[in-house]
Amino acid sequence: MDTPLRSLPDAISQISFHVSNYNGVSFHILLNCTRRTKRIRITVAGQDCILPQCKLTPESCDDLQVNSIEFPISQPAYAQLLDRMDEIGVYRWEKRYFADSYPPSEWGLTISRTGVESISLSGVSAYPEEWNSLISIWNWFARLDRFILISRRRLSSNTE
């Protein structure tokens, strides 16, 4: 459905984005949009973690090393996130991307909405043309690269 996110911001209940095997880690970002004060949780684990149904948990990881952080998001920052995701047209992307590649990297983006069709996108080792823009948005919004770097240091120090 071609409904821009910013046109119905109150309809969005949750945004979930996960990627396995990304820069040596797997990560999951969960943004709860139902509260007045929106909250984001970022979870990072080893690159070989499996992400069943977009849930990154110690039980799903072979190395049992998981780092999480949670913090509030301001309304202006949330509005800007929706604007930037609209700019790259996530609501118009294909639902599924696939390429036969090793090691595989799985990803998923789900935007749950009430009263409007939710958006559920995923891929295995293949990405939309705007993939790098999507990663840049999350780096800007959630300081993703910084948290991944910190988590990688923790993960490597725990294995020494």
Secondary-structure content class: alpha+beta
Principal-axis shape equals globular
Poorly predicted tracts of residues:
50-58
Please provide the count of β strands. 7
Q: Give the strand content.
A: 25-35%
Which H/E pattern describes the elements? Answer: EEEEHEEEHH
For the largest beta sheet, what order do the strands appear in spatially?
Answer: 4-3-2-1-6-7-5
Spatial extent as radius of gyration: 15 Å
Mean pLDDT: 82
Tell me what the structure shows.
There is one protein chain. The chain has 160 residues and is an alpha+beta fold. Helices cover 26% and strands 33% of the residues. It contains three helices and seven strands, in the order ββββαβββαα. The protein has helices at 75-87, 131-142, 144-159, and strands at 12-22, 25-32, 38-46, 66-73, 96-98, 106-113, 119-124. It has a seven-stranded mixed sheet with strand order 4-3-2-1-6-7-5. Strand 1 and strand 2 (25-32) form a beta hairpin. The longest helix is centred in the C-terminal third of the chain and has 16 residues, at 144-159. The protein is globular and about 45 Å long.
Provide a quick synopsis of the model:
The protein has helices at about 75-85, 130-140, 145-160; strands spanning about 10-20, 25-30, 40-45, 65-75, 95-100, 105-115, 120-125.
Present the secondary structure layout.
Elements: E1 12-22, E2 25-32, E3 38-46, E4 66-73, H1 75-87, E5 96-98, E6 106-113, E7 119-124, H2 131-142, H3 144-159
Parallel strand pairs: 5-7
Antiparallel strand pairs: 1-2, 1-6, 2-3, 3-4, 6-7
